[in-house]
């Protein structure tokens, strides 16, 4: 262990520094006068050295990770999802939205209490959601964005945020169709379901834009 002690001769002009090296129970003391080499002595604390070392360690880790990971072969951070599986899931999302809207006006769940839950299941947010390509679609979007399947990561990410905003709105409105809105006159479930449909239409439009970004 090394420690520096700064002392003065008492006249205010001469400053001395003493370095103490401790190994086990043996202590060695050496004296150094900073004025001997014409430069003031600058001490460095272990904490400062650690803080300076952290960015270097992070950089080395980033370089190593970037070198080892191959986008199409290694599992990505998004829940172990690979870029290939994420791309396949996304490619199935747009047709699922097309089918959802195509059947919206003819399926019995398009109106009435309880229909919102079926909509949410098809959106991959509740019930047997795992059967929907939209189940955990946000993870798929991240995995595709981190891969070389898209050229413009920023555009993909920003457009993906728009997609998820509409999905959350569609889900929330569909859920509201099952709930009472207060003690007074109730808002008909059909109102919420129609508002949810409009958000799904937005999702469909955004999905088509994103389809064009994926190789």
What are the key terms here?
disordered N terminus; mainly alpha; 11% strand; elongated; 50% helix; 215 residues
Could you write a compact summary of the structure shown?
With 215 residues, this protein is mainly alpha-helical. The chain has helices at 46-68, 83-102, 115-122, 137-145, 153-176, 189-211, and strands spanning 2-8, 15-23, 26-32. Helices cover 50% and strands 11% of the residues.
Write the layout of secondary structure elements.
Elements: E1 2-8, E2 15-23, E3 26-32, H1 46-68, H2 83-102, H3 115-122, H4 137-145, H5 153-176, H6 189-211
Antiparallel strand pairs: 1-2, 2-3
What does this structure look like?
This protein is mainly α and 215 residues long. It contains six helices and three strands. It has helices at 46-68, 83-102, 115-122, 137-145, 153-176, 189-211; strands spanning 2-8, 15-23, 26-32. Strands 1-2-3 form a three-stranded antiparallel β-sheet, with no helix packed on it. Helix 2 packs across helix 6 and helix 4 (137-145) runs antiparallel to helix 5 (153-176). The longest helix has 24 residues, at 153-176. The protein is elongated. Residues 1-32 and 58-78 have low confidence and may be disordered.
């Amino acid at each position: 262990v090394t420690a520096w002690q700064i002392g003065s001769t008492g006249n205010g002009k001469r400053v001395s520094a003493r370095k103490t090296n401790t190994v086990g129970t043996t202590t060695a003391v050496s004296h150094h006068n900073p004025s001997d080499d014409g430069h003031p002595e600058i001490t460095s604390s272990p904490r400062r050295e650690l803080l300076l070392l952290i960015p270097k360690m992070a950089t080395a880790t980033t370089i190593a990770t970037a070198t080892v990971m191959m986008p199409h072969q290694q599992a990505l951070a998004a829940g172990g999802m690979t870029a290939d599986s994420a791309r396949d899931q996304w490619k199935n999302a747009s047709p699922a939205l097309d089918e959802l809207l195509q059947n919206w006006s003819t399926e019995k769940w398009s109106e009435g209490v309880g229909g919102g839950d079926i909509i949410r299941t098809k959106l991959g947010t509740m019930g047997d959601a795992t059967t929907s390509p939209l189940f955990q679609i946000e993870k798929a979007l991240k995995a595709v964005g981190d891969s070389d399947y898209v050229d413009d990561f920023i555009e993909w990410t920003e457009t993906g945020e728009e997609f998820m905003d509409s999905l959350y709105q569609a889900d929330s409105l569909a859920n509201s169709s099952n709930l009472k809105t207060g003690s007074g006159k109730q808002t008909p479930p059909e109102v919420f379901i129609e508002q949810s449909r409009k958000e799904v239409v937005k999702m469909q439009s955004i999905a088509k834009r994103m389809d064009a970004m994926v190789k």
